Amino acid sequence: MDKLYEGKAKIIYPGPEEGVVRVYFKDDATAFNGQKRAQIAGKGAVNNRISAALFRYLEARGVPTHFVRELSEREMLVKQVQIVPLEVIVRNRTAGTFSRRYGVEEGRVLPEPLLEFSYKNDALGDPLIYGEAAIALGLVTDEELSRIRELALRVNGLLRDYFARRGLELVDFKLEFGRLPDGGLVLADEISPDTMRLWEMKTGEKMDKDRFRRDLGGVEEAYQEVLRRVLEAPASA
Ligand code: TYD
């Protein structure tokens, strides 16, 4: 079937009816703006199942998402949206780009969750952008940005709890939002070990894409372990 779009980790196909599209999760992994590429066996299935579980969890707690249902091991059906061209990053501890940019060690607890935005633009290398500039460029309206901030912080609280109950600490993550035809904002894209940093609470082990970025080994195993803990579903999940 004709693709609507192919990204680094997912392919979007037309859906069975108007207003919905099919997302296929690939095993392809990229890092450092696509300079490092490889396949992580089973990653597509893991990310599809984790994203589906998290979208369901968030929806049940009042966060609107694009998720409709799982279609197969590697595919989900989602509402078709217009993606807001911002990467919304929430940080609970210092890590990654933030640590490098400001010269601070990884793992420092931030006094409160920190929101950061990048302008989604491959040609420019997804530069950091501040809210006023995003509004001035017409990437997002003032009202939308307020709503994005509110939703991102709410998602952070919910996901931190969710992973803490599974012995994983949510260090940071990236969200994307989409506009429905009626203008409403929903959480879109994916939420998976590709887009989060998760540290095992007892051992401090990295359980996310940093194992790939930094050649730490055990990449497939870490993704499978996160899926196992997600599916384990404690009573209060
Ligand atoms: P960040 O530290 O900004 O960048 P990097 O991971 O390249 O060092 O990443 C913060 C979190 O957001 C991290 O969990 C990875 C995720 N993220 C993405 O999923 N996609 C992206 O394009 C970026 C920049 C970050």
TrEMBL record:
In terms of PROSITE patterns, this protein maps to: SAICAR_SYNTHETASE_1 (PS01057), SAICAR_SYNTHETASE_2 (PS01058)
SUPFAM superfamilies under this entry?
Answer: SAICAR synthase-like
Record flagged with keyword ATP-binding = yes
> One of this protein's GO BP terms?
'de novo' IMP biosynthetic process
Limits of the SAICAR synthetase/ADE2 N-terminal domain? 3-229
Q: Which reaction does it catalyse?
A: 5-amino-1-(5-phospho-D-ribosyl)imidazole-4-carboxylate + L-aspartate + ATP = (2S)-2-[5-amino-1-(5-phospho-beta-D-ribosyl)imidazole-4-carboxamido]succinate + ADP + phosphate + 2 H(+)
- Look up the EC number in the record and give it: 6.3.2.6
- What is the superkingdom listed in this entry's lineage? Bacteria
Q: Which InterPro entries match?
A: SAICAR_synt/ADE2_N (IPR028923), SAICAR_synt_PurC (IPR033934), SAICAR_synth (IPR001636), SAICAR_synthetase (IPR050089), SAICAR_synthetase_CS (IPR018236)
What is this protein's name? Phosphoribosylaminoimidazole-succinocarboxamide synthase
Organism the protein comes from: Meiothermus luteus
